[in-house]
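histidine kinase (Streptomyces rectiviolaceus), 423 aa
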Amino acid sequence: MSGRLERLRPSWTYSLRWKIALTIAAVSCAVAAILGVLVHNVLTRQRVEEVRKEARQRLDSALKDFSYGMQGAATGRTGQIDEPRLPEPLRELVKAGDRGVMVGDLDNKPVMWAAAPAGGHVLALYVPYEDTRDHLRQMDTAILGSAVLAAGSMALAGTYIAGRISRRLAATAAVARQITEGDLHARTGIAAGGKGAEHDAVKAVGVALDSMAQSLQQRLESEKRFTADVAHELRTPLTGMLAAAGLLPEGRPREMINDRLGALHTLTEDLLEISRLDAGVEKPELAEVELGSLVHRAVLATGLACEVHVVRDAHVRTDRRRLDRIIANLVVNAHRHGAPPVSVRVDGPVLDFRDHGPGYPAELIDDGPQRFRTGDPGRGKGQGLGLTIVMGQAHVLGIDVQFSNHPQGGARTTLHLPTKPRP
């Protein structure tokens, strides 16, 4: 229904693309961070353990020299007795009778201290740790750089993959919009089958959309052909019946027959008009018209009571005959399924029709007029073909039609005529 169908916008595809890309980037960063921490811990523990092992070996050698009475060799070559620069925690540990190894500072340089009790004294030595610390820092830098490079590569790959997915979804959404607007020949061009087709969700959506469009197109074309054939076949016998009815003598029977034949003739003409509108072959003959006077003449031609209020007149470029048909159908529908008084308000290129009946049913407001749906006129349920023709002619002229109910009661139909000629 014109004016009520919400157009899908492709902005969601960009959001989807960036959501997928950011998700992949976040997962890649998390994996790289976890792996980096694990590698850092393993390599650091391995490297530090190597330095500790070296420090313990030197400490064992110094203790052996000290136990053999080579105190001078122990203190001069491999260790020191009661080293004053030994870290206090390690000194307390040795005084308690244990040996230990720890990283500390010596002359503002990192070293690996090793100490053990030796004959009531503390034998201590150190191994340079600066090269090890520099090596660990270089290793951390390399791990961080590799993690950033890997995460960046995965983010780029994720952006590319997400872009492909979003583009395919955007193309499918564009085809869905074309089908919604009436182009049943639109197709995504995605063929069913192929390697991995059963696992490609986007392809499955495209194939399902193409299948739906094809099935819908076939059904609508079948309905159009049926409507046109029925109307065409009824026209010939109806013409003969009208001619035969003219030969009947004057009286009530003749009036009743002519009335029913007239209704049947109107229905046949409406069906033919709908079939032409459905076929999409109708072309408007545009001309500049004064809207206020056109509405007055169209309402007067119906022979029904209808008030016309011109708040602001306007000149529009439209097809006079088709606009007359729209106005007449709305006025007739208001009298047939609504209640008087019926009024038309002209405010520039906007026409506002209103009656004082029970109003439009909710399904008409939500879904638009459906052909051949009729019901209790007293409850406003009848629709027939009049509103269907209104929608078809409005589509040809590019008029936006909105159905609603007035807050104070009654059905309301608003026409927004284009201010520029429809291309």
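The chain has three domains: 16-148, 185-203+211-281, 287-416. Confidence is low (pLDDT under 50) at residues 1-10, 72-77, 375-382. ok done for today
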